[in-house]
Each structure stands twice: as structure tokens, then as C-alpha cells.
Amino acid sequence: xxxxxRPPEIVQDNEEEFLFTNDDLIASVSRGHQAxxxxxxxxxxxxxxxxxxxxxxxxxxxxxxxxxxxxxxxLKHNFxxxxxxxxxxxYTLACVDGSCKWRLRAMKFDTSDIFVI
Length: 117
Hints:
Blueprint: E1 18-20, H1 22-30, E2 59-60, H2 63-77, E3 81-86, E4 90-95, E5 103-108, E6 115-116
Antiparallel strand pairs: 1-3, 2-6, 3-4, 4-5, 5-6
Helix pairs in contact: 1-2
Organism: Abeliophyllum distichum
Protein name: Transposase MuDR plant domain-containing protein
Domain Transposase MuDR plant: 55-117
């Protein structure tokens, strides 16, 4: 490994990083959510905002649906996260507490608006 590479388990920082507080999340969730049609496969399920947990291979119709689900989980478990990267195809988060190992990476399917964790 050379000096510019980091071990794969560490989330890379970037200039787009910003902090969400619980106040931001409460304001976001209070705007409401209209759930769309459900999509299912044998390994994945679509989550609506009253989710209990997030898991690998979970599908969301749109990036906004996933963001709202994340916000509800964060409120429920009372922690804060940083957005490490957010664009049209990738959404990467990490817990702001150095002792917290929680993180999330989701990507958009090439052929649709669906995001998968």
C-alpha cells in the first residue's frame, strides 16, 4: 500500500462532507412522505419510512426514499452522521462519533432510479 491509499474499511473524506443533526432530521421527517408502489425480489424489499432497520440489498424506489428511511433510523437510535459522498449515483454516510462503526453506502442501478444499500 502506498502513502495515498487507505485501507478499504476506512471511509474517505471529501469536501462535500456535511453534518446532520437531530434537529435537521426532525425537520426533514416532519415534511411527510408519500410511499410509492412496492418492489420486491427474493433477496430485497422496499422500505417505507416506518422502517425498523436497514440492511444490505435493501431497495428504495428513489434516493429520497432511502434518505428519509435513514433519517428515521438515526432519530430512533439517537446518533448523528456525516454525508461523505452524495451525488446522482452514490450515497455514502458515516457516524460522526469516532467510536461508532456505523456506515452506509448505497448505489443507484444504471437502468432505473432505484437505490440499493
